[in-house]
Structure formats: C-alpha cells, structure tokens
Design goal:
By secondary structure, this protein is α+β, with helices and mostly antiparallel strands. Helices cover 30% and strands 29% of the residues. It has helices at 5-10, 44-55, 80-95; strands spanning 17-29, 35-42, 68-73, 98-103. Strand 1 and strand 2 (35-42) form a beta hairpin.
Amino acid sequence: GGMSDWQAASLPVIKGSIAALITGVQHLVGHNGKIYVVADVCSPDLVEAHAALTRAGAVHSFARYSPHVTLGKMKETPNEDFDDRVEKLNVKLKGRPIHMMFVGVTASDINSD
C-alpha cells in the first residue's frame, strides 16, 4: 500500500532547487524485469533531502538509495558495442561530470506507477 493522504501531507516541502552532478551512466534491471539506462547522480543536497523525507516517514521500494535519472528503457539486452560506448562516456564523465539542477522538487506516492 502507498502513503495515506495524511502521511503525504506531512512530508516536508523541498523548496528551491537541488544541485547535482552526473558522474556516470549504467544500465539497471528494474523490479519489472525491464532494462533501464540511468545517469548516476552525486549530490549531498539530494542525499539530505532523501534523509529528511525518510525521517518524515517516506519509504521506497529499493533496498538502498541510489540517486539517478532514468534516461530510457532498452528494447534488448545491451551488447558489447553499447558497453564500449558507455565505458567511453564514463571516462569522460569521471574527468568532467555534467552539472545539473533539480527544480521544483516534490515528493509523491508512485506505487500506482
């Protein structure tokens, strides 16, 4: 079950924007068995926002918190060419991460998704 309206209403509001760095790209298998390409995100402010939401009673379906942005869903299992391109991109990102901002951050129940 998801959060009740009361629980959702009691979550802290995150004001302003949250700065972050995209530090790498990888593919993950979601809990639906589909393969997603994600950008790994590094942000102390995002980690703190997650901690504040957790302290307020929010829960998520993954065992550990791993900040990321989903870039897309793959139609087939990644091949060697894909892995090579991702590896080259990750070398670039390691030396020069991409700056990004999360703007208008809100928390909501996505269990129905």
